[in-house]
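YM 10:42: Molecular chaperone IbpA sequence, as discussed on the call
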Amino acid sequence: MRQFDLSPLYRSTVGFDRMFNLLDSLSGDTAQQPYPPYNIERTGNTSYRISMAVAGFGENDLDIQSKENVLTIKGDKKDEQKEGEREVLYRGIASRAFERRFQLADHVEVTGASLENGLLHIDLVRELPEAMKPRKIAIGGNNNAPQIDAKAA
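YM 10:58: structure's back
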């Protein structure tokens, strides 16, 4: 039996939890995460949080955009120090540019972002419109409803 690696789809979508939980149970999650590493967490029934490790990046180095159900996070480190001022002996903190895209489910909106302790947190919420929410239908037991009599013409 063939196994398909669905982990790239699982890592880049938010709001498709039930479908991907079923698919993820069929296939293992063995792929390594690309740069920068991130987590997708469920923080409530309809709320989510993406946490991304962006050590060395400041608020001015990051760009977050949401357009047509795609969340795009770009990081571009601008060197603030001139080359002559310091010499880096060992570079263990990556400062390369990145672009990460997440496919959002319908009705998932970005509610905010914060940068603290080298982690970029992006909060999302899924809000269904009133027309799509389930509604209770009363069973009619009204005997006084008008009835149409069929009369011969």
